[in-house]
Structures are given as structure tokens and as C-alpha cells.
Design a protein that fits this description.
heterodimer; A: 179 residues; mainly alpha; Rna Polymerase Sigma Factor, Chain: A; Arc Repressor Mutant, subunit A; 2 strands; 65% helix; globular; B: 271 residues; alpha+beta; 5-stranded antiparallel beta sheet; 4-stranded antiparallel beta sheet; 9 strands; flat
Chain lengths: 179, 271
């Protein structure tokens, strides 16, 4: 990870805009991707992006440097923002995006397709666990198990530190992307 | 929740995604406070999810950053004591400003009484349904399983019995460990429609350093197949198995060096 919470959060608390800029540089693509998948509307996703980082700015005092994690903290803000925007529009948001929101299907040697589907719904599309379980017609416990196993698959087959795949998984993904 | 329960609950992953409701979030936070070793679990989960999310991101609008930085001075700062707020549905505003004075206690008492009667009725119905379900499960046991139980009961180690959770299309079976592996937990998660079985093993401290064991599986015909080697350095083993006959399925753990299982360490079976 290239950004350290013990440096950036105290700086944001001191109202240093550059610190929030660093946080934005690190995570804005993830936040925007999730908001766009959740809302499927570019204007509202951009509005959500600004709101999410404004929340980070305004709630930095509440961040617990001992236990909190930047990614988790921003995910909580991102999901909360998406839900707020959704409620503000009474759940009827017109789809308006030129981006292809189809996620790359990873090879089964990296992650089981059922597990990826569950992860994509909750993590990327920002759907609630209950809604995802209903949509897939799965018991809640089964969905949670799929997500947990999916993360285990990723942990074993992704190399988060380098941000790349290991060995065969990388080659397989490359072939899929090229095809 | 103890350490193992919270690890297999799936709540940690959802916590990192920010996808828990307040009640579950409280459970996770209490568990983190109680078990500091969970910090490493959470770090792994966070890194894995970040790496996964970054595989396919969409570029942010180019002017968004400058717009954000320009608005910061207008943003109100929240106090330190309050945690990150969860969104709630917009509150309904009162339609009338003129309150009507109605004595409220008789109404509340009446509603409470009605609620208690309804609750008593529901509980009694559920209890009857539970008894019927248990009887149904007991009657489901066929002769083959009973014979298997007798055979296994003659072995040295006590035989694990099953603590079953059933679902419509799925079932998760927690296979109870025997004395030899008291800290081991094995879950069989099966998707009946897809005919897929996932064998998930936590062995934590069950294996000592340098002590390797292997999991063998019998899917009904007593031709055991080697499923997985248990490594003491790896506290969690995940095995996805596709079997054609889900009629009976036995899991036994044996010393790594043997070529045929002795059935002395059967950790459970499903029927």
C-alpha cells in the first residue's frame, strides 16, 4: 500500500488539502467504479465521488488509527453515499453511462465463478447482502460462505503487494482479455 | 463469538466491504477488540479486495479532483466522538402541525397485550413445527447409515456425529472433530442442485509442527480417494469436490504416510 493512514489521517485532521488529495489519488478510481456500478449514472456517480471524499474530510476525527483501515473506511462511506443518492431519487435513477460495466471474468484457477459473482454483487455493485441473497435465491449463510471462499481464492491466487497475478492465473487472464 | 466462529462467519469480509448492518458491525468490532490477531485477517482481506477491485476500474472524471478540493472549506467537520454514520431512510415529516391530545397509555397497553398474545401463538406454532422437523430428520436415517454408525462405533476413536443445518438447495454440515483432533472443524458445504461439494477444513492447532495428515473421502462405495494433505503451517484448507453420488459421503483423516485409510479417525459423514 502506498499510502499510510497514520500520516494521511492526521494531516486531513489538520485540514491539509494535499493529504485529502493523496487519499483521492489512491482510492478515487475504486470509489468511482463502485459508485458507477451501483448507480449506473455518470453524473450521480461523480456527485457521489465528491460526497464520499467530503465525508472523509469531515469525519477524519472519527477514524481510529489503531483499528480502522482506509479501504474499509472509504467503502463504508462509498456505500452510504450511494444509498443516500438512491434514496434522494426515490430509487428511480435513469441509467446514463457510456462505460461498459461488465466485469472481467477471472479464470476458475483464480476464483470460482460463483464466488466472483457474489463478490461482484456486494463489493462492486454495492448491493446489500440480503438483496444479493434474494436475487441469487440463496440462503444468507450460503452467500456469506461464497464471499468468504471468494476472498480466500483471491488471497491465495492474487498477489496484492505487487497488484499482479501469479503464474498461470496471469497468463490465463491475459488470454481471456485478449480474446 | 470465539475466534474461529468469527473467522468462518463471513462477517469479516463483509465488514471490510462496509456491507454490514449496525448489529453485525458491532459483533465484528467487539471481536476485533477481543482478538487482536484478527487485525492480520482483516489486513489480508482488505489487500485482496483492493487488488481485486483494481483489476478493472473506471477512470474518474478529470475535473473531479479540483472540484472536490475547491469545496472542502464549506464542508462541516464532524466531532470525534461519533462513529461513521450509516445511512437511514429519509424520515417522514409530520403532515400537520396541530397535535391532537389523545390519552396514549391505554392504547399502548392494549397494543402490548395484543402483541404478547400474537407472540405466544407464533412461538407455540414454531415449536410444533420444530418437533415435526426433528422427527422427520430422525426418520430419514436409513439402514445403511445405521450400519455405518455401528461399524464406525467399533473403532478406537469416538465417531463424530453431525450437527446439521439444512436449506432449500444448500446445506452446510459441520462435522464434529473426534478426540484426536479436538481443535479441528470441518464444514461440508453442498449445493444440491449444482451437485457441488466444498470441503472446508480448519485445523488450527490440531496439527503439531512436522505432523502431516491427509484427508480421505469415500463417496459411497468405500473406494477412498485422497482429497487433501493437511499442512501444519496452513491453518485453513479449502477443497472443492464434485461428486456424482451425494448419497453418502465420509471424511476421514489419516496419517500422511499410509496408502489406505484405517477409518480410525473418521471426522464425519453426511447422508
Amino acid at each position: 500500500m502506498s499510502i499510510d493512514a497514520t500520516e494521511v489521517i492526521p494531516a486531513i485532521r489538520r485540514k491539509e488539502k494535499d493529504a485529502l488529495g493523496s487519499l483521492y489519488d489512491e482510492y478515487s478510481d475504486i470509489v468511482y467504479t463502485i459508485l458507477l456500478h451501483s448507480l449506473k449514472n455518470e453524473n450521480l456517480a461523480k456527485e457521489g465521488l465528491l460526497k464520499t471524499f467530503q465525508k472523509a474530510w469531515s469525519t477524519a476525527l472519527q477514524y481510529d488509527l489503531k483499528t480502522d483501515d482506509l479501504f474499509t473506511w472509504l467503502m463504508t462511506h462509498t456505500r452510504a453515499t450511494a444509498k443516500e443518492i438512491y434514496l434522494q431519487h426515490d430509487g428511480t435513477i435513469p441509467q446514463d453511462t457510456s462505460h461498459d460495466l461488465t466485469r472481467v471474468k477471472l479464470p476458475s484457477s483464480t476464483i470460482d465463478s460463483n464466488f466472483q459473482e457474489a463478490l461482484d454483487s456486494v463489493l462492486i455493485s454495492g448491493e446489500s447482502v440480503d438483496d444479493t441473497a434474494k436475487r441469487f435465491n440463496l440462503p444468507l449463510g450460503t452467500l456469506k460462505t461464497r464471499i468468504r471462499f471468494g476472498v480466500n481464492n483471491l488471497r491465495k491466487n492474487l498477489n496484492p503487494e505487487s497488484g499482479s497475478f501469479s503464474g498461470i492465473s496471469a497468463i490465463a487472464l491475459l488470454i481471456i482479455c485478449l480474446s | 463469538m470465539n475466534l474461529q466462529e468469527i473467522r468462518v462467519s463471513g462477517l469479516l469480509e463483509l465488514y471490510v466491504m462496509g456491507a454490514l448492518d449496525k448489529a453485525d458491525e458491532k459483533i465484528v468490532k467487539e471481536s476485533i477488540a477481543e482478538h487482536p490477531q484478527l487485525a492480520q485477517d482483516l489486513a489480508f482481506i482488505s489487500e485482496s479486495l483492493q487488488a481485486y477491485t483494481r483489476l478493472s476500474t473506471i477512470a474518474v472524471p478529470p475535473q473531479a479532483k479540483s472540484q472536490l478540493l475547491d469545496t472542502l472549506e464549506e464542508v462541516q467537520i464532524a466531532p470525534a466522538t461519533k462513529r461513521t454514520p450509516r445511512p437511514s431512510a429519509p424520515s417522514k415529516k409530520a403532515k400537520s402541525n396541530a397535535p391532537i391530545n389523545i390519552p396514549i397509555w391505554p392504547i399502548i397497553s392494549g397494543l402490548l397485550l395484543l402483541g404478547l398474545i400474537g407472540l405466544w401463538y407464533l412461538m407455540s406454532q414454531r415449536s410444533n413445527a420444530g418437533i415435526a422437523e426433528q422427527q422427520s430428520i430422525i426418520s430419514e436415517k436409513d439402514e445403511r447409515i445405521t450400519a455405518l454408525e455401528k461399524e464406525l462405533a467399533s473403532k478406537e476413536a469416538p465417531i463424530a456425529m453431525l450437527n446439521r443445518l439444512t436449506g432449500e438447495d444448500n446445506r452446510i454440515m459441520k462435522l464434529r472433530p473426534n478426540r484426536a483432533f479436538s481443535e479441528m472443524e470441518v464444514y461440508l458445504h453442498s449445493n444440491i442442485k449444482a451437485d457441488e461439494y466444498f470441503l472446508h477444513i480448519h485445523h488450527l492447532k490440531a496439527l503439531e509442527e512436522g505432523q502431516y495428515y491427509a484427508i480421505w473421502i469415500d463417496n459411497g462405495d468405500r473406494t477412498f480417494s485422497f482429497a487433501e494433505r493437511l499442512n501444519p503451517d496452513q491453518v485453513e484448507t479449502f477443497k472443492q469436490i464434485t461428486i456424482s453420488d451425494s448419497d453418502r459421503y465420509l471424511v476421514t483423516i489419516e496419517e500422511d504416510t499410509i496408502s489406505k485409510p484405517t477409518l480410525r479417525n473418521v471426522i464425519g459423514y453426511i447422508e
